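hey so u asked for the seq, here:
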Amino acid sequence: MKNQFHLMQINLVFHDYKFALLGFLTAFIVTMITIPPVIALFKKFEMYDMPSARKIHTIPIPTLGGISIIAGMIAALLFWFPFKNDPEQICFFFSLIVLTALGIMDDLRNLSARYKFIIQIAVALLMAASGIRISNFEGLFGMYQLPLFAQYTFTVLAIVGITNAFNLIDGIDGLAGSLGFMSLITLGIFLGLNHDFNSSLIAFAMAGGILAFLYFNFNPAKIFMGDTGSLVLGFSIAILCIRLMQSNAYSTHPVLQHAPIFTLGIVLIPVFDTLRVFSLRIYNGKSPFLADKIHIHHLLMRAGFSHTYTTRLICFIHSVILLEVFWMQSMNQEWALALLMIFMIVVTVLVKNLSVVYSHKKHPLLSLFKELPDPSPERKSETNKIL
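ran it, structure tokens below
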């Protein structure tokens, strides 16, 4: 059975995605079933993300919801994934276990930033050594095959950076999960089109768990994914982005003309927002890890938008970017990169000005969306959250 997406000019053979869709459904069911008892268990042992002056929520909310997402993903892979004695597979699943344990300990005991940073770099180096590396820029800035040292450097920066970018975008109900779900579905589709069906199955399995989790995480949230979920989510997306670049670069019939730009679009919002926030803090003479209220979701909420509307608007922007990077495939990569940066700068300026307009009460239409007061900073200090 084939289906054609005319606007994207691609053909999907649904039979190729049979196991990926089964993995999606399995993960969705397992996560949906396990979250209610997990919520009850965490309430019993009072394992809450407690409200404070530094947090947005006003009542204790159970955390560690990422455990159910990971459980759903692993259950799906146990049913449908063709496990082999392959270094890439072994290192990937070992890294998932390490990051899950790291996230659980951080959610429970708030580990030091240095310790988490060392673990993340070690995991990234392990993945690079296994063979999952950014090895080819496909002509971006005149670069094709990269030297081995550059491959390791870019791979570690990408994995650690994307992992923490998704960790930091997890600032309001449903946002990190929604962005992650859209990115995973996109990765799953294009990995399948490049005949990397194992990676596609991983993407769809995690997407199924995320979708079930979002049912309990949309405002008002009944549970948070915590660092347990956001670290594994960001790490998995980073690895799948690299796999898409690899499969596209060495495919005899690549589906993407410029995979580096396309994969950047998949993670653009959290990565750009993190770089923007860090740059502003450094420019103002502050620590880049100092918690404040200048993330894109904070700017929208300061403009009077609710949790739900803020999440929907950012996801809409994300969907525009995903379509944009695909439609710009025939464009020069440097021009495409410049347009993406200009687009994000324009979006950020508009969002920031919405906040200024609202603060001066000059725009009557904004009152339609005014549901929440000026938000507090992130749920926890970014000095610990970022790493």
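Residues 360-381 have pLDDT under 50 and may be disordered. The chain has one domain: 15-385.
lmk if thats what u needed
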